[in-house]
Amino acid sequence: MLIILTAGLISLIVTLIGTRYWILFLKRHAYGQFIRDDGPTAHHTKRGTPTMGGAILIVAVVAGYLGSHIVFTRALSVSGLLALGLMVGLGAIGFADDWIKIRHARSLGLHAWAKLALQSLVGAAFAVAALHFPDDRGFTPASAAISFQRDIGWLTLPLVVAVIWIMFIIASFSNGANLTDGLDGLLTGSAAMVFVAYSIVNFWQANQWCGTLSTAGPKCYDVRNPLDLAVVCVAVAGALFGFLWWNARPAKIFLGDTGSLAIGGGVAAMTIMTRTELIGIVIGLLFVLEAVSVLLQVGYFKATGGKRLFKMAPLHHHFEMVGWEEVTVVIRLWIVAGLAAAVGVGLFYGEWAVGQ
Question: The whole model's pTM is what?
């Protein structure tokens, strides 16, 4: 338990203090955000706000994870390193996207297809690695089965299909988080709730782990390194809470694609390695809604020859366009995210609790 708290404390301190100096560095070099012209007019005042804040977030998470292991002289786990690797890999793609925007002074970075191709490459590498490296019981960080509270045996996929399924989850959550990052503090606060939820899931799995042969019960969890995944989750949550200090309205810095893609990757890693992929849709419901709103908007626009289902997509911009204040949108969507995370944890625990 202490290693989990230490990871969160270290990452919190790094973002709480380090973000201030990162903001000064970005301002000195005029690395600011460019705002899309067709967005809400109130956002034009945000032009020039330092971006790429996700870089300090990733540094904080890595520092929290590694620092806690150094303090308690604990060995690093394959699952923990894979989760961090996915976050760093997707964060690097986001960094490239942010850098192109800054260099060319525009609101568009990497071409959509180029970004998706790079995400697929990182996702495929993660999927292949996560389906290997079995422990002494034969359990790998990820499995080939689709999962709810645990693997659904009759939904076990062929290896190639399982890799594609994992890639789809990663692309979905990383892009969903990216689309959610459009208002001050919206993604930061909602993602913190998601990672708190997954820290509870991981800690519970660690206490009911099948690898603890002396105390394992009939409903134990066949997962790998659940305690270390809890360390990662709390490190991310701590980093997000620290960053939110600077990212809350009026934001002094934005996550940028560097942060949003990394955050989405972290959520995807947790859904995959905790064997809760379908419950992940509930825990990360806000990201799902934001992504679906864009898909519906594009589909409806094409099907009707130019009509719009929402005033603007993603969803949070629709609420702005109908007259909600930005802070109102953020707080209400935080409530949605928090309730969804709580319901998701309840669904996870419900399987174990029934019949006890």
Answer: 0.92
